[in-house]
Design a protein that fits this description.
The protein has 1 helix and 8 strands, in the order E-E-E-E-E-E-E-H-E. The protein is mainly β. Strands 1-7-3-4 form a 4-stranded antiparallel β-sheet. The longest helix is centred in the C-terminal third of the chain and has 4 residues.
Length: about 110
C-alpha cells in the first residue's frame, strides 16, 4: 500500500477514453472504504473540474498537504492521512476502445521527493 505521510503523483494522459465520465478515488487499505481525511470525498473526476496541463493531460497529487504553490491545481489534490495505508482506483465509465487496445494508459503512481 502507499504511505499516507508521503507525496505521490499520478499522470493521466490527455483524451481520457471514457464516454460518460472518469474518476480517481483513494481508499483506506484497512477498511477498503473511502479514505477519511480532511476532504469530504477523496477524489478527482471529470465532475470536480480538475486543471489540465497545456497538453490536455492531468496530474493528480496525493499527500497530507496540498502541494506548495498548487493554487488552482489544488483541485487536482487528494489528501492522505499520515500513518494510514491507502490505494487508488481509476474508473472509466463506459470506457472506449483506446482503453481496451491499451493505446491509452495512465502512469504508475510515483513518489514525489
Amino acid at each position: 500500500f502507499l504511505e499516507g505521510g508521503k507525496r505521490y503523483r499520478l499522470h493521466i494522459p490527455a483524451n481520457i477514453p471514457a464516454k460518460n465520465f472518469w474518476s480517481v478515488v483513494a481508499y483506506d487499505a484497512d477498511s477498503r472504504s473511502i479514505l477519511r481525511s480532511g476532504q469530504p470525498f477523496p477524489s478527482v473526476s471529470s465532475y470536480t473540474g480538475p486543471v489540465a496541463n497545456a497538453d490536455g493531460s492531468i496530474d493528480i497529487d496525493f499527500g497530507p498537504e496540498a502541494p506548495a504553490g498548487a493554487g488552482s491545481h489544488a483541485k487536482n489534490w487528494i489528501q492522505t492521512t499520515p500513518g494510514k495505508g491507502w490505494f487508488v482506483i481509476l474508473r472509466l465509465y463506459s470506457p472506449l476502445e483506446p482503453f481496451f487496445d491499451k493505446s491509452w494508459r495512465p502512469s504508475e503512481i510515483e513518489l514525489v521527493r
